[in-house]
């Protein structure tokens, strides 16, 4: 029997991993395999989900809507050959992916016979939507979604939330859920027989729009110096995430930056090793060399005055 597939899409930092984590930890009793696609070679998302489930597979160094399509298909086939087979497959697209390209790949009749795309779940950061809504990539992600989940609704202004819901309903999105409330698993499955409209993928000149740096350091960092660097870079970094340790031995921390909101929280216990950090920005305003210099300046002994 064909295994249902949920494709989760949404802009950088929208809440895709958070949603998948909740799904993996839900008490539905389903055997779920998750395939996650991070931007870059340091696979933070897979590490974040690792604690939640076996069967989390990270696809890195590219984007599954373009350069990694072949990898996605190979990974799907290998997941499907597992015994016992998963009962649900969740694919997290990277935050820079256009879901239309992935949907086209999943329509392959050989794949479809074994794994049928059930629903494209689109996640929109409600607190960021009014700023982001004219972005063609954001629009493509909304257009390609069958159902919508609104994240960070508690952080958004009520009038912005109302405007967002109105805009989504104009676009024909009937199923819009608040991600800060429990979303029942059944709500993620489309009514039987519902046809998905074919959506054209964005032209692929977009791949050079985003750039990122990956940075690693063996040992703890000075917290205050790190915060200063992040404050300097704020405004040019769209998304940051990583695992870090700081002087004083408070343990490993998970760093999350979305737009101008940064947070540090205790990292999942099974994340070991060096400090590792990924920062992503738009090529027009994010200068990787300067960002790397600022980060390298954090290494003990190399601080410049
Ligand atoms: N308050 C609040 N925070 C959220 C919600 N959803 C996600 N977050 C936070 O937003 C940040 C990014 O969430 P992720 O789930 O990693 O976002 P993502 O879409 O997977 O990010 P990328 O894959 O890097 O594009 C994290 O700090 C989350 O804790 C939400 O509904 N409410």
TrEMBL record:
UniProt keywords, alphabetically: Chaperone, Hydrolase, Nucleotide-binding
InterPro entries hit by this protein: CobW-likC_sf (IPR036627), CobW-like_C (IPR011629), CobW/HypB/UreG_nucleotide-bd (IPR003495), P-loop_NTPase (IPR027417), Zinc-reg_GTPase_activator (IPR051316)
Domain CobW C-terminal: 210-299
CDD domains linked: CobW-like (cd03112)
SMART domains: CobW_C
Function text: Zinc chaperone that directly transfers zinc cofactor to target proteins, thereby activating them. Zinc is transferred from the CXCC motif in the GTPase domain to the zinc binding site in target proteins in a process requiring GTP hydrolysis.
Family membership noted in the UniProt record: Belongs to the SIMIBI class G3E GTPase family. ZNG1 subfamily.
Protein name per its UniProtKB record: GTPase, G3E family
Organism (species): Roseivivax halotolerans
